[in-house]
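Suppose you are handed a protein chain with no further information: no name, no annotation, nothing but its sequence. What can you learn? This example shows the usual starting point.
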Amino acid sequence: MSTVLLASFGTAGDLLPFARIAQRLNRRGARAVMLCPPGSRLPPDVETRPVGPALDFDQEIRERPELMGPSGGTIVIRDYYRRFNEALAPVAVEAIEELDPVCVAAHAACPGLRWAARRQGLPEWTVHLAPPSLFSRHALGHMPWAMGLAMRLFLPLGMWAMTRWYRPLAARWDDPLPQGMRGLMVPEHRLVGLWSRAFCDGPLPDAAVHPLGFPRPDQATLPAPIEAFLAAGEPPLAIALGTSAVHVAGRLVPRLVAAAAARGLRCIVLGEVTLPADKGVLVQPWADYGALFPRCRAVVHHAGIGTAAAAMASGRPALLVPFAHDQPDNAWRIAGLGLGVVASPRASARRLGAALDRVLLPDLDQQARVFAARLADDIDGADALAGLLLAPPT
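A reasonable first move is to predict its three-dimensional structure. Written in structure tokens, the prediction is:
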């Protein structure tokens, strides 16, 4: 039986795609072992090896809201990436020696596993989950000029932060930075993106990344309260701010619910949210997006890449309220495809209502359905990568 080592850490949006890769490897008869912080919330059939102390990013964001602010990316790099990779490298060396894997595949922010693989001469794959993590000015999508300019200024800052905090590790590991710091995050070989070419085509001029497709979740059912709510009236508005943005949303959710109610829309709100009792609003801690979104009138989300993929696959238009990290680029790319409308998470109820009116237009609904049909023709990116990982090295 072939063994493959995987590594990722971060929010659910960082961990779950690798869990799906692990599941697809297992279905192909391989053994997948995922290196991640202990206590990571993963499906029970995913085998893991603990790395470093327990890390719950949701709790970190509750305690440090600045992680979802404009400087959140550099804070994460400074305070979390380095600490995790310091712990990852020795665990990876030990796992490679014990398990004799055929290759490794790591989140772009997990160079510790890739260093351990190079040390043993193993093939190493770098996996990017969203285009902005390529630090490529060509991957910035259809942003307004001011935001695009800001992102182009931010990219060198992000690369500087990665360089500053990786150099001590590179020195400790006797690992010269490959082609500078950019080569560490965006190597020339075995570089894949888990997104659809319909969302962002490739390869890019300065990053030979090959999009494989979005990972496809397995079919799931909905909890009984959601099924009952759906059956009791017209399709509602789904409000899904993921596992991280919901903790810094403030008054955004009440404003969205008020805007929806003014337009006769019921709401299903997902996440740890407290709202006044209202028969037109159902709050649930979680639901499978693939099962819920297709049965809704529209979706409000933060444009995290996993939630965005599920919303686009559902064929429902979106109101996009991005906070930080890859979310602004994802949001404006979705809007550029004619699948949604972008609004600030700090927007007033009036502005959110105006944006929601545009989302509910028939033209946007039709475009969303057409695009969903295109995504339905894509292969499962997680399964495609599993096949590449098990193929003979070239």
